[in-house]
Amino acid sequence: MKKVVLSCVLGLFFFSLAVLGVIGWVGSERALHPAYRQYEWSLATYPDLRPEHIQVRTGDKVLLDGRFFRGDRSSLVILASGYGDTQDQMLSIAEFLHQAGFGVLTYNSRARVPSGGEYVTLGVFEQQDLLSIVGYAAGRTDVDVNRIGVLGISMGGATAVLGAAEDKRISAVVDDSGFSDAPRVIAASFEKFIHLPAFPFAPVTIAIANSRAGIDVNRVRPMDVISKISPRPLLVIHETGDSVVPVDNSLRNFAAARSPKELWLVPGKEHGKAHTVAKSEYENRVTKFFEAAIH
Amino acid sequence: MRELLLTCLLAASVFAQTGNFGSFTNSDDVGAPPLKGAAEFDASTGQYKITGSGADIWAKADQFHYVWREMSGNFAVTTTAKFLTEGIGHRKAVIMLRKSLDTDSPFVHLAIHGDGTPAVQFRNTKADNTNTVDFPIEGPGTWKLKLVRQGSTITVWLAKDGAPLRELGHTTNQLGSPILVGLGVASHTQEAVSTVLFSDVSLEQLPATAGTRQ
């Protein structure tokens, strides 16, 4: 009788482990290969934006696909898109910056076709993508290497902070709706992105995702390096009612940053939609910020 | 004798206005804006009409009109502010804590802009850049502002058009003591002035916080 009970308990344990492992694997698959976000617009929606198609190879041999919009001046703003997004996300921002005379560069980070790469890594490899793009831009004759700024939304915002902390060629940063540290934002948004309860699946999913991609996503902590951006200017933007990446993330980033820094809190309830909910104010602030920083 | 009198008058015009400024002791322009500012205190109503010019209170140097007194330790400042003149959206009415009257002095202020954008702005060290936290625009109106310093923590409250005060947030700074505490107005342009009516002004010295030094 004891043996039967022991066998049942062991069986239940291994079955639970197997279920957890399978669901963790499925979760990691969703995390590393998020669905492509669909937009109501495309490049054709912006006839004034005529890109030069570019391809940039990263240090680890991933080929990135991007667009370069030549500006009236040699200052350039690189736009980094969010988790699950492609460069199309940034078209409306590219439009007003280009109208203001800036050169603009957008790109698909890795694992967003037609760019190569296997995994979306919440900033681990995406910061390398950004630095490769900066290196490419700095080598262009129509770009002033001393006048390169980056604007990123969500994961792109975190990537912009991480990249600028590493690379002094980035002269100004706009972090729109970025997160302060990956563990906290994963915990907060796990159910939203992965569609599984955070516990017990989040730690298992993260462990499996880390193992599959060869990363440690827990070490993606923009708030730990954001102070390195100073004395280059930083503008942080966040919707106060953001439920995906709560505004606390930007408050932590802002508190950790050094002068000169600006935080603009926008009265919205969505994530990464500040440009939509406060269009003219957004365009005015971002344009003025880059004009002051990299004109 | 006439020369002496003239010299005294000229000297008086060069230095800050001192007189009856109610809760405050002095009034003067900071940063020498081309259009001079002024302050009037109505003892019967307790209201201050402050007119200021100046490019801005921003970046590495300021231009504005300031009415202040020296204070140390913990305190609370409350006022109601209403713009009496039209102007640029980014004109400012502020409760300001300032280290000195130098144009590039460290400061912290709670500002309400002409377009109704509340902001907490600060320059941490002399000649450093200004930093800002801009809150959602609420549109023009009559604003009640409150700023409390306790130790190195500064907490700010705001209310529009008679609504109850709500806490906007807090920040920390190392301005120390003594500092200049007062009300300021900047028109955001050197070519025009802005006038703001400050009413229900109160300055309250608060008890020392245990274990804090200022």
Briefly say what this structure is:
The complex is a heterodimer of chains A (295) and B (214). Chain A is α/β, with parallel strands linked by helices and 295 residues long. Chain A has helices at 2-32, 91-99, 126-138, 155-166, 182-194, 198-213, 222-225, 248-256, 274-277, 279-294, and strands spanning 52-57, 63-69, 76-80, 103-108, 148-153, 170-176, 234-239, 261-266.
Output the radius of gyration of chain A.
20 Å
How many helices of chain A? The count is: 10
Ranges of chain A where pLDDT stays below 50 over 5 or more residues in a row are none
Counted up, domains of chain A total 1
Low-confidence stretches of chain B: 4-15
Question: What do we call the CATH homologous superfamily of chain A?
Answer: Alpha/Beta hydrolase fold, catalytic domain
Q: Number of DSSP helices of chain B?
A: 1
CATH topology of chain A: Rossmann fold
* Strands ordered across the widest β-sheet of chain B: 1-2-7-16-9-10-11-12
* CATH first level of chain A: Alpha Beta
Helix residue percentage of chain B: under 10%
Sheet/helix structural class of chain A:
alpha/beta
CATH architecture of chain B: Sandwich
Mean pLDDT over the residues of chain B: 91
Radius of gyration of chain B: 17 Å
Domain count of chain B, please report it: 1
Main pleated-sheet profile of chain B = 8 strands, antiparallel
Shape field of chain A: elongated
Give a description of the structure:
The complex is a heterodimer of chains A (295) and B (214). Chain A contains ten helices and eight strands. By secondary structure, chain A is α/β, with parallel strands linked by helices. Chain A has a single domain, classed as 3-Layer(aba) Sandwich (Rossmann fold). In chain A, strands 1-2-4-3-5-6-7-8 form an eight-stranded mixed β-sheet, sandwiched between helices. In chain A, helix 8 links the parallel strand 7 (234-239) and strand 8 (261-266). The longest helix of chain A has 31 residues, at 2-32. The model of chain A has no long low-confidence stretch (mean pLDDT 94). Chain B has 214 residues and is mostly beta strands. Chain B has a single domain (24-206), classed as Jelly Rolls (Sandwich). Helix content of chain B is 6%, strand content 56%. Chain B has one helix and 17 strands. Chain B has one helix spanning 2-14, and strands spanning 17-21, 24-30, 38-42, 47-54, 57-58, 61-62, 64-71, 74-83, 92-98, 107-113, 118-123, 131-134, 143-150, 153-160, 166-172, 179-186, 189-206. In chain B, the strands form three sheets. In chain B, strands 1-2-7-16-9-10-11-12 form an eight-stranded antiparallel β-sheet, with no helix packed on it. A seven-stranded antiparallel β-sheet of chain B has the order 3-4-17-8-13-14-15, with no helix packed on it. In chain B, strands 5-6 form a two-stranded antiparallel ribbon. The longest helix of chain B is centred in the first third of the chain and has 13 residues, at 2-14. The A-B interface holds A 231, 233, 240, 254, 259-267, 281 and B 123-125, 128-137.
